[in-house]
Amino acid sequence: MEETLEKTEEEILKEASSKKRYFEAVGRRKTSTARVRLYTQQKKGIEINDKDLKEYFPVSSHQKVVLDPLEKLKCEDKFGFTIKVKGGGKSGQAGACRHGISRALVCLNPYFKKRLKKAGFLTRDPRMRERKKPGLKRARRAPQWSKR
Fold first, then answer.
1. Of the four, 6, 48, 68, 108, which is 20 to 30 A from 54 by CA?
2. From first to last of its 148 residues, what are the pLDDT tens digits of the chain?
């Protein structure tokens, strides 16, 4: 008997829910770190630092960044997420949440990896702030030059 390589989404969810309570992953961006837990059975929605997504990220562009991997896979209302995020600013935290959610989805179902990788959600964004250099005001901003 030959077994098919790809399983249906329902089979994977049943298999996953019988084995574990949640799937955990870490996402990073700039100086922010997000610890993401994906729940398959319990509550639905996204909770960040014990607050609702819309309450923690009031700016709609940050909300969209966090929800991008779920929209890509068309599974917005199927899972529950609790996220603990710290460090950096709101933009970096939103990027870290997106990275963590994508990694958690791949832990749940390895077949999601191809689509998420193609969209660029599994790649950690390496751009960091450049350090301040001595004698300069910022990384590259020199003091104003005066002739006399």
1. 108
2. 445 556 676 666 666 656 678 899 999 999 999 999 999 887 888 999 999 999 999 999 999 999 999 999 998 888 999 999 999 999 999 999 999 999 999 999 899 999 999 999 999 999 999 999 999 999 999 999 999 8
Task: For the chain, give every domain's residue range.
Answer: 9-119
d(CA 80, CA 45) in angstroms, rounded, equals 5
pTM, full prediction: 0.83
Strands of the chain, DSSP E: 22-29, 32-39, 45-48, 51-52, 80-86
- Structural class in CATH, domain 9-119: alpha beta
Whether the Cβ atoms of residue 49 and residue 133 lie closer than 8 Å to each other: no
